[in-house]
Amino acid sequence: MPRRRPPQLIDRALGAFIGFLGWLLLAFFLACTAVGAFELFVLGSARGLGLLALGVALYFGARLAFDTASDAV
What we know:
- It contains two helices and no strands.
- It has one domain.
- α1 packs antiparallel against α2 (about 45-70).
- By secondary structure, the chain is mainly α.
């Protein structure tokens, strides 16, 4: 079985940075989803639907960032 090389400092730093970006995307996801749901269901604005769609895209971006960060470390 081939031995896996130990993670280098640059790998850990890159993983931490990408993980930070994932948390940032997750925060934007929560904000867009909350504002979009409020605008769509309370105010009846169609702009809320766009914000909900943006929130879903940010969620999948955050998942991709977390997967990439976990592979780097």
